[in-house]
């Protein structure tokens, strides 16, 4: 289970990067009207959940490849989540509806 969590979290972190690029460059074309949250907020929640899965996946380290996969997962998800948190906080402080 721990090894599969390592692989799943790595795939989810790559998906987070793809979604970040898609949401960032699409402008206001993507709107979530059903749950009434901003796409960047949804991505932040998804990225934090992926970060938690990546930390659980650290227990499944067996060799150098799985160690590298875990470290890359943690760096990607931590970087995106910090950046999104800053964007959302500064946008809300400035009164801009992000």
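Sequence proposed for the structure above (98 residues):
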């Amino acid at each position: 289970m721990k090894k599969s969590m390592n692989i799943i979290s790595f795939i989810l972190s790559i998906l987070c990067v793809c979604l970040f690029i898609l949401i960032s460059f699409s402008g206001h074309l993507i709107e979530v009207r059903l749950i009434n949250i901003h796409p960047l907020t949804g991505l932040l929640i998804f990225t934090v959940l992926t970060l938690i899965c990546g930390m659980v996946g650290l227990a499944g380290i067996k060799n150098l490849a799985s160690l590298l996969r875990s470290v890359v997962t943690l760096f990607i998800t931590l970087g995106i989540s910090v950046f999104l948190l800053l964007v959302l906080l500064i946008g809300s402080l400035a009164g801009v509806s992000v």
